[in-house]
Amino acid sequence: MKRSISVLLLVATGALAQTGPPQTQPSPTPPQGFDELSREAQKTYEAGNTERAEQLFTRAVRLRPGWAEGWWAIGMIAYQRDHYPQCRDALTRMVELDKSAAPGFALLGLCEFRTQQYDKALGHLKKAHMLVPASESGGPLLDMADYHLALLLTRQGAFEVAQEVMLRVALKERNNSEMAFAAGLASLRMPILPPEVPDNQKEVVAMAGKAFWDLITQSPEQAEAGFHALISKYPDFPKVHYLYGTYLASHHPEQCAPEFLEELRVSPDSVPARVQLALRYIVEKKLDQALKFAREAVALSPDSVGSQLALAEVLRAQGDDEHALAGYLVAKRLDPTSPKIRLYLVNAYRALGRVEDMRREEADYARLKTAQPNWP
Description:
Layout: H1 2-12, H2 34-46, H3 50-63, H4 68-80, H5 84-97, H6 102-114, H7 118-131, H8 139-156, H9 159-170, H10 177-187, H11 202-217, H12 220-233, H13 240-251, H14 256-266, H15 271-283, H16 287-300, H17 305-317, H18 321-334, H19 339-351, H20 355-371
């Protein structure tokens, strides 16, 4: 899959278009100038001599270092040849020259993933994702980049965002068991990569991933059957009841609380289950129970943004806007780049009549949304 995507994108994007049409006969003498080198490089690549083409493109960018398409070609060829450090270095130059090149950021992130530079890969794959609106098709390379982005978000523990990205992938890769398996890790909140899954956990991960994938690609009845099969076979596996509870919260919200309570039976220290129960009990007007679970969540994980937001929401529902504001401010400190938290603060300041603070947060919300387009 990796090689076919590389060839497809190299041709489809017209990355070499500025090098001119290929010649049908070899040059009688070795190319010297930039125009000759670039034309010969393209012709050599199309003839299948990737090693020689890489050499020619390298000579061409030495003559014209600002030629972004040349760096792109070098990176693509290096990726095809499994030369990931060289690919990374060439594409680093390319994106410096063209900061709107989603394919460049995508392939750079994939190269860094291969060299296990996961933090850098996450940043560049996220950049590629944000450059392509969800309503547009980024092509196979961008789909593969989104898949690896979801892997790294899962590894980081950003499970909900990973699922959002994986949903976008599933809409295009409807029948991909490898990707569905990886979705199982985010669904079960396991912060590891697919090769790290123990043998005795592969089946439950696969079943969770299939249930998630079917929810997007199959009928509601088939998806629900997958969740029931998972619950029946693995009723005591951590996060299984939580996963089913989140499904119910979206589709049958009045049925979700028992599943989260069941998750607490399996995992007594589960913070996410407590957060979900607090939010559900706000809706059901069971505010004392909501406050209990929210306070427990904060006590178990004070640095959890979800815990702090849940407690703030409960306090606001009880009319305690001052203490709710304190919770929102803690969440802002923990995640200063989240636009969503700024909206919570806008509403909190509005409730307290603090107009100047409200307008500041509104401006910050707009700034953060602009800086992170197309991000979940």
